[in-house]
Automatic annotation (TrEMBL):
It is found in: Cytoplasm. Signal peptide: none annotated. Residues 235-302 form the GHMP kinase C-terminal domain. GO terms for biological process: galactose metabolic process; isopentenyl diphosphate biosynthetic process, mevalonate pathway. ATP binds at P112, L113, G114, A115, G116, L117, G118, S119, S120, A121, A122. Its cofactor is Mg(2+). Residues 4-37 form the Galactokinase N-terminal domain. This is Mevalonate kinase. The active site is at D164 (proton acceptor). The keyword ATP-binding applies. It comes from Halalkalicoccus paucihalophilus. It is an enzyme of class 2 (transferase). Belongs to the GHMP kinase family. Mevalonate kinase subfamily.
Length: 327
């Protein structure tokens, strides 16, 4: 039996635009997913998952994800979660050259599903590490990141960047531009996160942006402008200029909103954070529902979020330098 864990993340800047080759800066946070893999005698998969937003469910199957378990969670989310586990196990089987290996998989996660904090990337990254180690194979962090990207790419039907999976595999702050992924220096950032209890459908949201981009030249310009914000943000990060980072986050949120990926509850939480004196705030991840991230070293934003209608949880998160590791 082998357990591995990997962190979730927030996007300081650049989600969606990164899909079109613009740079993005995701940062790993101190909320993790743990995946335990135990080899079975047969080639089946049995998955048990515990999540902040789930009461827990167990499903046994031989690789097919179309039999949804009888639990009080959206079947779409369960299917998506199972799809990621399947894809991670396929990558591990391929890496270890054991196509028939079966596993009992247990997932414990502090990262709400589909909420913009990189739950799927963390599960895929930790799942690949746990399952390959269980098969006696040790992969480099780069290979785990690459295989996790391929798994996400497959589940999201070709609409994924390397940002989430690379960040979860390496930890810390990273910069991703197309195939070029690297760790970057970052000061301690006073992240405050607001969660509306919901989730967005990454595939649909990415498609929505793609359609806007194809239809309107100014939507394509908007995506490029997000890239300009990221480049400016990298300079602010290197200088430790939190005030400037906040201003750029506000700008980035406005452009994501224009691209149609915000929601009423995300906008409400963003405004609650700004009104409470945060340096800046934006949605994080695919959008449509889920989480916002703000920068505030005081207690004010966290308190304001707790009293914001539609905000289910407001919490602080540290930048986490630890990427994927054996638990
Ligand atoms: C989702 O967490 C981030 C997106 O940019 C998609 C991706 O980068 O794969 C929306």
């Amino acid at each position: 039996m082998t357990t591995a864990s990997a962190p979730g993340k927030v996007y300081l800047f650049g989600e969606h635009a990164v899909v079109y080759g613009e740079p993005a800066v995701p940062c790993a946070i101190s909320r993790r997913a743990w995946v335990t893999a135990e080899r079975r005698a047969d080639s089946r998969l049995r998955v048990h998952a515990e999540d902040l937003s789930l009461d827990g469910f167990t499903v046994e199957y031989s690789g097919e994800t179309d039999t949804a378990p009888d639990v009080d969670v959206s079947p779409g989310l369960i299917r998506a979660a199972m799809g990621y586990v399947d894809a991670a196990v396929s990558q591990a089987r391929e890496a270890a050259d054991t196509p028939e290996a079966g596993f009992d998989i247990t997932i414990e996660s502090e990262i709400p599903l589909g909420a913009g904090l990189g739950s799927s990337a963390a599960v895929v990254v930790a799942g690949i590490e746990a399952a390959t180690r269980e098969l006696g194979v040790e992969l480099s962090t780069e290979e785990i990141a690459d295989r996790a990207y391929r798994a996400e790419h497959e589940v999201q039907e070709g609409q994924a960047s390397r940002a989430d999976t690379f960040c979860s595999a390496t930890g810390g702050a990273v910069r991703v531009e197309g195939e070029d992924c690297r760790a970057i220096e970052s000061p301690d950032l006073p992240f405050v996160i607001g969660f509306d209890g919901g989730a967005g459908n990454t595939g649909e949201l990415v498609s929505g942006v793609r359609k806007l981009r194809e239809r309107y030249p100014f939507a394509a310009d908007t995506v490029e402008t997000v890239g300009d914000i990221v480049r400016q943000g990298e300079r602010a990060l290197a200088e430790g200029d939190i005030e400037e980072l906040g201003t750029l986050m506000d700008f980035n949120h406005g452009l994501l909103s224009a691209l149609g990926v915000s929601s009423r509850s995300l906008d409400r939480m963003v405004w609650a954070a700004r009104d409470a004196g945060a340096h800046g705030a934006k949605l994080t991840g695919a959008g449509g529902g889920g989480c916002i991230v703000a920068l505030d070293e005081t207690e004010e934003t966290e308190t304001a979020l707790r009293f914001t209608p539609g905000c289910e949880e407001g919490f602080r998160a540290e930048l986490d330098d630890e990427g994927v590791c054996l638990a």
